[in-house]
Model the fold of this input.
Amino acid sequence: MNLAASKRPIPSLLFLYPSFVHGAVLATRRHESSARRTTKRLRVKPDPSFIPPAPTNQLQDNIIFNPPSSSPSPYQTPAAFLPPSDPRRSLLVRSHDHANPYAQPNKRLPPPIQKPVEKRYHLKEDEIAEIRRLRQEDPGTWTRKKLALKFDCSEFFVSMICEASQERKQQQQMALDDIKARWGKRRTYAREDRQKRRVLWGRDE
Done:
């Protein structure tokens, strides 16, 4: 029988495919007994240790200690509360050795990722005065990076011994405000959220 040529609706022709109809009925059938059994398994009573005691005349705080069922750890009991003959003392010492293998005096440390930089104090008073003079006269030309390259020091040291003039700071602030004016809503919100997170970091929140 050609289904495309038939004018009868498709739902009325499902009797031609009994296996399909039987599978669809079984997949969508739901009994009350199965639903009740499933929800009953979710209604689990709490452990007796989590149930607070009966209320008394005086209000008091309750401390619930319900550790998981696992093997005991030597970190649970401090060494000060362990007797000298307790075998957990040796386990605690071994755990410290495995936790930090480089704590041993004869153990070689891994190589450094970056080459360590040694501090140098090679600049004299006249050179420091020259840095301040150049920075004060033309801060646009003699930036911290150029002064650090010229006198072979760090940019942080240049910022410690001298700072830019107020006019230079105002120019930098105006340039920064001009850049911020071209920001969209998404970038502006992201920068404000970053400032809030930094404040919360300082509060340890």
